[in-house]
Specification:
three-stranded mixed sheet; globular; Spore Coat Polysaccharide Biosynthesis Protein SpsA, Chain A; 2 domains
């Protein structure tokens, strides 16, 4: 098991607008069924709530769950956290980012916090990094794969989780593997580990087909494991400007925290805002993972879905049975509706209709990648009130 876990809970989730907006982002929506229904389970049914459950299942009893989020996410994080019991909330630390600078600065802040709050990073302290906007299960299988990853992380490896591709997907990054590490696997669980040869960015259709045919390429899940000391060395070598901006952070004082029924919010960490100001936004993949030389991939046995657009959301079995929709349909087929008001369909097909938060989205199935472009048009028009 891992000693600590970092959950990246930032991001705006604009590809699921208008359900995901500036007040409640994708990661705080329901992970199945109606996108407005997360509150029906006290938040545990949200993408983020499921990530918290994965964090607790993959860390030791005393492990901390370090949540990195922006100011606009804090209220939703607290709301979901309140659905967990007292002992679990006491393990959570919520760090407020001063500004969004992508995942590399966020993960570095979490790693440094892990070390500073335990007297300094050391090789034995392993850390798992989780996303907060994916659907993953079953939970016991994920925990077993994470346990396998923790063995390599404790040895100083950077560990990634690869997903066996089911189609030549052009929207995901890929991991190229080169050689199994079966002899180094722990006796339990039964998972497969491979050396990583390279990371490949989102490919074109032909290249994605080649990747799938090759048999040694996997989707990059965006989750990582490592030792605190090992990853700090990777930052020092591969992202020196980023490392220099953050390396002098000191352990927070007790007065820097706010307490919400056991959940601690680190709202004032001296030097953090200045560190963020000094660096450019960059992803962990670009800054670290693609440059690291000591990387291992666990071939994941758990199910994984990156519900990154309305096409993918509409395909979920739970979404097809979304509660609360009142739809009247005549001479229409293959449409998906998620709405807080009654919707009538007549003589149409292959449409996705979403009515949430005072806005209406109508998009043809297979074209939902254009939603992010719609959001940009809304920004240009100055209508940020509906975002």
């Amino acid at each position: 098991m891992f000693d600590d876990c970092i959950i990246m809970a930032g991001g705006e989730g604009t590809r699921l607008w208008p359900a995901s907006n500036s007040k409640k982002q994708k990661q705080f929506l329901s992970a199945g069924g109606s996108v407005s229904a997360a509150s029906s389970s006290g938040g545990k049914g949200s993408f983020f709530g499921a990530a918290l459950e994965r964090a607790f299942a993959s860390t030791g009893r005393d492990g901390r769950v370090i949540i990195i989020a922006g100011g606009s996410h804090i209220e939703s994080v607290i709301e979901v956290a309140m659905a967990f019991d007292d002992a679990q909330r006491r393990r959570m630390i919520l760090i407020r980012e001063s500004e969004a600078k992508n995942t590399a600065p966020a993960i570095l802040a979490g790693v440094l916090y892990s070390g500073l709050s335990t007297g300094g990073a050391h090789p034995e302290r392993s850390i798992l990094v989780l996303t907060s906007d994916h659907i993953i299960g079953p939970l016991p299988v994920f925990a077993e794969d994470a346990a396998a990853a923790s063995v390599f992380a404790a040895k100083g490896k950077l560990v990634v989780f690869g997903i066996s591709p089911s189609r030549p997907e052009t929207g995901y990054g890929y991991i190229e593997t080169a050689g199994t590490l079966a002899s180094q696997m722990p006796a339990s669980p039964e998972a497969a580990a491979f050396n990583v040869a390279s990371f490949r960015e989102k490919p074109g259709r032909a290249e994605a087909e080649d990747f799938c045919a090759a048999g040694n390429f996997y989707w990059n899940s965006g989750m990582f494991g490592f030792s605190a000391e090992g990853i700090l060395e990777e930052y020092r070598i591969n992202a020196p400007l980023l490392y220099e901006a953050f390396k002098d952070l000191k352990a927070p004082n007790d007065g820097d925290y706010e307490n919400f029924r056991g959940l601690r919010l680190l709202s004032q960490w001296q030097g953090l805002a200045e560190a963020y100001r000094r660096v450019q936004g960059i992803s962990f993949d670009y800054a670290i993972a693609e440059k690291a030389q000591n990387t291992v991939m666990i071939r994941s046995r758990f199910d994984w879905k990156d519900v990154g657009n309305w096409d993918e959301y509409a395909a979920l079995p739970e979404a097809q049975k979304a509660a609360g929709n009142e739809v009247f349909s005549v001479y229409s087929k293959n449409c998906f509706v998620d709405s807080e008001i009654p919707v009538a369909l007549a003589g149409v097909e292959d449409l996705i209709v979403v009515v949430r938060n005072g806005a209406l989205l109508i998009v043809r199935k297979g074209r939902t990648q254009y939603v992010k472009d719609v959001v940009e048009e809304i920004k240009k028009a100055g209508r940020t009130d509906i975002l």
